[in-house]
Amino acid sequence: MTKNKQEHSGVWILAEQSDGQVQRISYELLTRGRDLADKRSTDLTAMIFGSDINAEDLQELIDCGADRVITMEAAALRHFLVEPYAACMLKIIEDYRPEIIIAGATSTGRTLMPYVAIKAHAGLTADCTVLDIEEDTGNLLQTRPAIGGNILATIKTPQHRPQMATVRPRSTKPAIKQDSRVGEIIRLKAPAECLASRINRVDFIPDESEHGLQEADVVVAVGRGIKKGENLSLTEPLCGSLEAALGATRDVVDRDWLSYPHQIGLSGKTVNPKLYLAFGISGTIQHLAGMQTSETIVAVNTDPDAQIFNVADFGIVGDLFEVLPVLTERINKIRNSQ
Amino acid sequence: MRIIVPIKQVPETNAVRMDSKTGTMIRDGVEAIINPLDLYAIEIAIQLRQEHGGEVIAVSMGPAKAIAALREAIAMGCDSAVLLSDKAFAGADTWATSYVLAKAIEHMGDYDLIICGERATDGDTGQVGPGIASFLDLPVASYIGKVEQVSNKTCRLHRLVEDGHEVLDVELPAVLTMVKEVADPRLPTLRGKQRAKKVDIPVWTANDIDADADKLGLAGSPTRVVKIFRPQVARQCEKIVAMDESDIEQAVDKLVMFLQRKELI
Ligand SMILES: Cc1cc2nc3c(=O)[nH]c(=O)nc-3n(C[C@H](O)[C@H](O)[C@H](O)COP(=O)(O)OP(=O)(O)OC[C@H]3O[C@@H](n4cnc5c(N)ncnc54)[C@H](O)[C@@H]3O)c2cc1C
Ligand SMILES: Nc1ncnc2c1ncn2[C@@H]1O[C@H](COP(=O)(O)O)[C@@H](O)[C@H]1O
User: Fold this and answer.
1) Tens-digit pLDDT profile for residues B57-87
2) pLDDT at A152
3) What is the rounded distance in angstroms from the CA atom of residue A10 to the CA atom of residue A38?
């Protein structure tokens, strides 16, 4: 699979579905994939595994930038299982010889991609923040944080094909529908020999405490400057009137002031809301990794040299315990007068 | 039950330097520890042995000094350890690392479980666990937050995913990768520490595990680091210093105007 580089062509993304509905990450990957395919002057294909995948959703993948959609469907593919998914993906690699495959750094992508990359003898780079095409060689340039986010490394796979990468969910805007795009949808039945699994999914228990941090348009985030868990109640009225979700730094989560699903950053969630309000957050590189793509960033910190001000659009050097109540009151007033 | 735990030695501090020529880390002068997430793998492995009998073997690929991490694993309660160390392994990416670990595990004979950490804090890819499974043609269950029933043929696990957790039945042998939620790692005991000092830890080279020379280290790695740089983060920040009450009123007024201008409130 690595011998004839020239035989590999096209940019591919791994779209994901849940209960037959195409998931948001797929559209984020289309944004990345379209850009790469245009730079490489080639086609963009979305591959997706599942069972009874919604036909309108597949058309939407075309409307949002794919030139071609290839499904492999079977009852055994309804939910992610590493062995059948990997067997199907390897079959596609063998039949179609993609040059580039990108997937989300989701629980699925992060398990499937390394499993496939080993067998395909492909290079794989995890958690890329920037993907680009090298001009003279056409190689995929993959940039990712390394060593706890302290540095960025650009990685390429000069000889092996396909070139594989995962990107973090919410690190890209989902592609939007364009008028009159045409493309081909090929629905394949998954080959029977690809469906064996030594893992059986016997149940699924949904998370009750889902609080929509990644979906929120406004995130209010607190750091160690909040001083103790009880002080979090201070943020409630502001979150209420802005319809904001509450996020936190790792220091806050490690102290058990908030649970892990609230953690934003390198080892937590990536968010990119319209507005990110940071209170008592120093702005370490690991925290920035999860929020610096937010559209507008506001920071309140007593330390004028806090790093967070380097990524903020508006900063108040001051005590959050004094600023927060005043801000909450002003915003409430505006809300009530509207 | 025979359980193999691959553990990685990682630098303790964040002040890590890189070799700009090879793109690999300079490990000299930085204190090294067991990858914190591997402690959860060790803990679960020891718990399973306590319940079912058998042995736990820690294995690490790394430089000679990685033996310290293996001694610590033994101090925690692992029965034995093997170090995989050879100049030819240097500069390996996750493909070539998974290959060496898989070859070594093959060499160890029969086993029921291979338990990894979810990811290493330095490389931070989480690719090596699934990679080992792929080389050995085993099923892999990643992001395991709970280990329920285990027999000599199967185990029932909870796998944490984005919107909840899956309950999985997995046929053994299998590879599992553990997240923090799974257990609280124990501390080494005094007796463990004494044992760890004395125990003989064999060092295996490429030859010992019948590894293909062209699949090792930098030469056997599909990926290449081509550039390393410091992240640039800068926006134009309108920064207001607000020390007393009237400052704060004014600063908040300006902030509110800013937010209104941007149609955010
Ligand atoms: C591998 C690795 C992964 C990591 N992953 C993450 C991650 O995902 N997310 C994450 O957040 N961190 C992560 N970290 C941890 C990170 O390095 C920092 O420890 C953490 O982000 C700091 O959190 P903080 O800003 O709340 O605390 P601090 O750095 O202690 O900052 C507190 C800030 O509050 C300010 N302050 C104090 N009192 C007040 C007040 N009254 N009013 C206003 N401001 C005040 C201070 O000036 C200070 O700037 C990771 C670290 C490593 C090594
Ligand atoms: N050099 C190594 N030696 C032994 N185990 C390793 C090594 N590198 C990675 N691992 C294992 O693979 C897991 C994931 O590592 P990584 O893919 O580097 O994030 C770790 O938690 C370890 O269990």
Assistant:
1) 999 999 999 999 999 999 999 999 999 999 9
2) 87
3) 10
Choose among A298, A219, A333: nearest CA to B240: A298
Residue closest to B74 by CA, chosen among B88, B62, B60? B60
Question: What CA–CA distance (Å, rounded) separates A80 from A54?
Answer: 17
Mind listing the domains of chain A with CATH numbers? 5-194 (3.40.50.620), 218-337 (3.40.50.1220)
How large is the average pLDDT for residues A214-235? 95
A-B contacts (CB, under 8 Å): 254
Query: What is the distance between the alpha carbons of residues B238 and A312, in angstroms, rounded to a whole number?
Result: 8
What residues flank ligand 1, with Cβ below 6 Å? A 148, 223-225, 249-252, 263-268, 280-282, 284, 286-287, 290, 300-303, 306, 319-321; B 14, 121
Ligand 2 proximity of B85 Cβ (cutoff 6 Å): no
C-beta B114 within 6 A of ligand 2: no
Q: How far apart are CA B166 and CA A317, in angstroms?
A: 45
Strands A21-22 and B25-26: unpaired
- Amino acid (one-letter) located at B149: Q
CA separation for the pair A296, B206 (Å, rounded)? 53
CB within 8 Å of A210: residues ≥ 6 apart: A261, B163
Confidence check: pLDDT of B20 > 60: no
* Residue B38, H or E segment: helix B38-52
Cβ-count burial of A103 within 10 angstroms (0-12 exposed, 13-18 middle, 19+ buried)? buried
* The pLDDT value given to residue B27: 60
A64 vs A201: CA distance, rounded Å: 32
Stretch (H or E) spanning B145 = strand B140-150
Nearest to A287, CA basis, from A219, A209, A192, A235: A219
Angle at the Cα of A250 from the Cα atoms of A247 and A256, rounded to 5 degrees: 85
Contact, B238 vs B255, CB < 8 A?
no
Residues forming a β-bridge with B158: B146, B167
**Residues B45, A181: Cα–Cα separation, whole Å:** 53
In chain A, residues with a C-beta closer than 8 Å to the C-beta of B127 are 110, 113-114, 117, 124, 126
Say which ligand is closest to the CA of A284: 1
Angle between helices B67-76 and B190-198 (to 10 degrees): 140
Q: Which residues contact A114 (CB under 8 A, 6 or more apart)?
A: A124, B94, B98, B125, B126, B127, B128, B129, B130, B131, B134
Alpha helices in A169-213 (DSSP H): none
Residues of A in contact with B228 (CB under 8 A): 146, 151-154
Q: Which of B128, B222, B231 sits opposite A121 (nearest CB)?
A: B222
Ligand 1 centroid to Cα of residue B144, in Å, is 27
What is d(CA B108, CA B39) in angstroms, rounded to the nearest whole number? 22
Backbone angles phi, psi at B16, to 5 degrees: -105, 140
Look at residue A36 and give its three-state secondary structure. helix
| Stronger pLDDT, A187 or B13, i.e. the higher one | A187
